[in-house]
Amino acid sequence: MINQSRLSQGTIVLSEKVDFTETVSIGFWLLTGSRDEDKTEQGLTHFLEHMVFKGSETRSAFLIAQEIDRVGGILNAFTEKEHTCFYCTLPSEYCNLAIDVISDMLFNPVFAPQELEKEKKVIISEIQSIDDSPEEIAYDSFLENLWAAHPLARKITGTTFDIQNINRDKLREFHQNRCTPKNLLISLAGKFELSEVLDQLESSIPQNSSALYVPERTVPVPRKSWKYMSGHFSQVHVFTGFSFPLPEKIEELYQFLIFSTLFGESMSSRLFQRIREEKGICYSIFSMRSFFTSIALWKIYAGTAPENLDELITGLNTEIQKIYKADITNTEVENAITHLVGCILISKDDMEVRMKRLFRHFILGGEIHDIPTTIKMLESVTSEDIERFIHNHLLNNAFNLLAFGTKRLNRKKKLYFTL
Prior knowledge:
Strand content: 15-25%
Largest sheet: 6 strands, mixed
Distance between the termini: 41 Å
Helix content: 40-55%
Mean pLDDT: 93
Radius of gyration: 23 Å
Oligomer: single chain
Low-confidence stretches: none
CATH class of the largest domain: Alpha Beta
Structural class: alpha+beta
Order of helices and strands: EEEHHEEHHHHHEHEEHHEEHHHHHE
């Protein structure tokens, strides 16, 4: 059963009780991410995510890790462009421990100067590892070409220069501004007693009267860009796609999921079968979806050899034109639905998946569908619905493309295509 509650501090709590499990997963979600930083704050959200693990007023960094490790739990965090999550999955009898540890590290960090300087080195190493990845460079460049200087196109980590210029005062001010109960959403799934959880959250989260931090989020204006970048490696990494207004109806998001699945998100999808298997011109190819405030991003990635790039783009154009002509079969839709339903059923025993699912559904539309409802909505989608979704949201979008590979790429002709 899915429940929505609100603490006296203003924090929303989403919960799903699952009696057949012996575990629980709880996530503390800050409702801001890297896109909400101004130019003087770039990299601070991700840096803050790291630093709260480095000790609180009552726990050292080692004790934070040890208290969860000793019961077999997993404590982790991640930063996204619009949210930051701190979560723990552990045996259900220790749910109170997870709440206590995460609340303490999140609201009572000390930001010791020596830990701050050490973590700068860690994050700079992380940035350098990303900069050594051709695929990561290609994706960042694709977003920059698509959305120019918009905050959604920035690197979540910030740059080495940004990290080097962070100081303790700036970090403390940023933490006090963003890490407030009203800017927090909590989701949990597994075996627990809701009344006990709510009581502990009431006592663990400070009664902070700070107003809700409301980020000023503008919608990026997509640009048309088709660019080849030279690198010093043998493969070509290709990202192509476009952004469009986020569909308002939840039913259309299910249609988008099915469409992208049949087109490129599985081994039996069109992209994998026709570009990789039939033509053999790439090792990896798939489509992906991303959702942000007011805007959706649909993209395709492929990795290929330089001599196959023109054939790859021509093959993509062929598949895209078939979609343009509404060449969607009932069998494809039915297979995509059963694939998605199967994935849901396989993952339903994973409490971390359920916990994150609660948050994602709520943020997208404010309405959380349980698993039976989700399956029912997926199974109600028809090929006509998919064709209507394509017509209403995808047609007439010019694809942006970024190809990152050898120096020979700058001599290749440009092959444009639209959906």
